[in-house]
Amino acid sequence: MATLLYRLGRFSARRHWLVLSVWALLLAVLAALAVGLPRTAAQDTSFSIPGTQASEGLDVVGQKFSAAGADNATATVVFQAPAGQTLTGANAEALQGLLAEVRAVEGIVSVSDPLDARAPRLSADQSIAAATVTFDGTAGDVSDETAEAFAAATDPAVEEGLAAAGGDVRVEVTSPLVTTEVGHTSEAIGVAVAFLVLVLTYGSLAAAGANLLTALVGVGVGVLGITALGRVVSLSSTTPALAGMLGLAVGIDYALFVFARTRSELRAGAPLQQAIAKATGTAGTAVVFAGTTVIIALVGLAVVNIPFLTQMGLAAAVTVAVAVLVALTAVPAFLAVLGARVLPRAQRGLDPAELRASAAAHAHDDEDADERTLAGPGVLGRWALGVTRHPVIALLAAVLAVGVIAVPVASMRTALPSAENEDPASSARQAYDLLVAGFGEGAQSTLVVVVNGEPGADPQTVAAAAATTAERIQGLDDVVGLTPAVATAHGSPPLINLVPRRGPPHQATIDLVR
After folding, report:
1. What is the CATH number of domain 2-40+184-368?
2. d(Cα 73, Cα 108) in Å, to the nearest integer?
């Protein structure tokens, strides 16, 4: 392995412009495909866990109630009257006018009327109402033109003192009536901090920039490849997230291995191409081992048989594999281009003989120095000296500290993301807050109970069981609303709709489901 990687590093250093051109061409091709390929597959925005009761219930509903449009994208437009007013009278006229504009948008098939007496969706104080907008097709099928027209149609509500919209449709607009995409501020901050740490580590802006650039090349290839694939294959909307984060993290680390070893070889007096080849053969072995273990762990997510987790794991594994290839080819090529600039400024003017002499003198000084001198000055030097003098105590203290830090994991509860987790300034979060204020937390976690009889079961027996089930549910704590079970035509199982008191992630709702 080391010999093969040595040859690969030497080739990449000698043919550095060729190697860098290949990576640049690959990036350009993937970018063109990600932008230019016609979309033939819709983005999958659903989250399902096969084998669970919830998934089985949804399957039954899908089979028995396969009405056209069941999977269509929807948005919820939430209206709020000005302070001290209601949505009746003059405000009702403004509301109906806006709904009429929304109905006129091409690509929208239906818009509910929250003031309709037959099925009202109006808060008890009549200050908040919610209308459901149904689009022609799934969320991934909604065209940009339809989304923009929907945004334009809801903008007048701002002038009328009515507020916010949220749902499956996500468009970039300034109106608080439409959901906006969350930015990537956290990733940008992470990249900036990483660059600062690399500058302090290397003492060279050129080396730090090249290290970060190679990591971004790997992330770019991975994410653009996933994006291009998503235009022809239905992928979960969460697929690129893990790939981007892990790709950047391992990309910086793997490049750092090769950069650091190359600097050590140059300081020892090795010629540039030999230093790069030797660094690739030695540090590159660690890169391959580390990358392989990460890839195996990510591919292992497929074992749990949750589709969106499997997609995330495989996409991230491919991105990590790309990061390994970048570290073994693009990094040596960048090092050949940088040359002596990979070293701190004070060492760049020294020729190999002077670097060897400096290294030899440093080694001789090390032999005569005591351990306190070798540890270095300051707090970090004293820390290193203490750890090496008392390794057992240091190890036990580290294990104890990690154990204490991990204590909150025992009480951690996980849930799928919802509008509750959105930016408070986003329209999705505003719509969520209004719905909670007008209809309670449980309005965000309506539950459906399917009473499905065995094959050949008597419909009257199933209806009786459904009625009994509805009565039992009505008597449970934390149930604030319930639609009695209704026998449906064509042998479809009865459905019971209930509204919990609390929201989806609350423990009371979890207990209610159980």
Report:
1. 1.20.1640.10
2. 10
